[in-house]
Amino acid sequence: MAYSEGYEYHIHLKQGDIGRYVFLPGDPGRCEVIAQHFDNPRFVASHREHTTWAGELDGVPVAVTSTGMGGPSTAIAVEELIHVGADTFMRVGTSGAMQPETQPGDVAVINAAIRDEGTGLHYLPVEFPAVAHQDLITGLTEAARDMGKRYHVGVSQSKDSFYGQHSPDSMPVAARLKERWDAWVAGGCLVSEMECATLFLVAATRRVRAGGVMMIMGHHDFQPMTEEEKDASQIGNLIPTAIEGMRRVIAADKARA
Ligand SMILES: O=P(O)(O)O[C@H]1O[C@H](CO)[C@@H](O)[C@H]1O
Ligand SMILES: O=c1cc[nH]c(=O)[nH]1
């Protein structure tokens, strides 16, 4: 569909296409998989890296829009989703392990993010913390606990370079990357991914709610995963926790209303 009047420039949505509650995977291919957990799932739009499906959960309109990888496209998607009426965002993504106590396939509920990215600096000075909204943290934590998932609650490192994480030695700034990675680990940072910090900072700026739940992949020491561990860390295993977490947020909102 070409861009036209009334439609947001990048996500190609208009007022009325979606409701308040939006899941945010990075991967456009994950949108339909998440939407299959909605009642009445329907494709809405796809433009660039932003695919959207809509449906309902417990009678309430929900949607899923992919952010693409990294801060810039995430900020664009969230800004435009706010323009068309969304105010509650849950990132649903994959992440790399950083602590020895996690196992591949564990769930990480993100309560804050290290601002190792550039987009957030276009919103708020670096001293401003990138934190998740308590409603999302509570909903996701209770969902993971009640579903019997192996889960952790903690900080993600949101970075701009995937290969700075996975191949730091190949970078001219290797020493700096490794020194900082060691500091994040020493501070207890749970996982590494690429979008939470930007999402939380845009949300703070626009006064909306955001949180995130991540599938933990791999080992903190980058040892290869076994076939069993690869099976455990499929994104499909994470999605039921995200759906139940959003149901809890919706239920808490209904109880407050
Ligand atoms: O699985 P998604 O949600 O894309 O998230 C992670 O995967 C991508 C890198 O492989 C980055 O977007 C990172 O944050
Ligand atoms: O190791 C990983 C896995 C997913 N996404 C990342 O950014 N890093």
From TrEMBL:
**Source species:** Tessaracoccus lubricantis
Q: What does this protein do?
A: Catalyzes the reversible phosphorylytic cleavage of uridine to uracil and ribose-1-phosphate.
Origin, by domain of life?
A: Bacteria
Q: What class of enzyme is it?
A: transferase
> Could you identify this protein by its name?
Uridine phosphorylase
Where's the Nucleoside phosphorylase domain?
A: 21-232
Q: What's the EC number here?
A: 2.4.2.3
Question: Known PROSITE patterns for this protein?
Answer: PNP_UDP_1
Q: Which InterPro entries match?
A: Nucleoside_phosphorylase_CS, Nucleoside_phosphorylase_d, Nucleoside_phosphorylase_sf, Uridine_phosphorylase
Say which family it is in. Belongs to the PNP/UDP phosphorylase family.
Q: Where does the UniProt annotation locate this protein?
A: Cytoplasm
Q: In which pathway does it act?
A: Pyrimidine metabolism; UMP biosynthesis via salvage pathway; uracil from uridine (phosphorylase route): step 1/1
Keywords of the record: Cytoplasm, Glycosyltransferase, Transferase
Q: Which Pfam families match?
A: PNP_UDP_1
Q: What gene does the UniProt entry assign to this protein?
A: udp
Catalytic activities: uridine + phosphate = alpha-D-ribose 1-phosphate + uracil
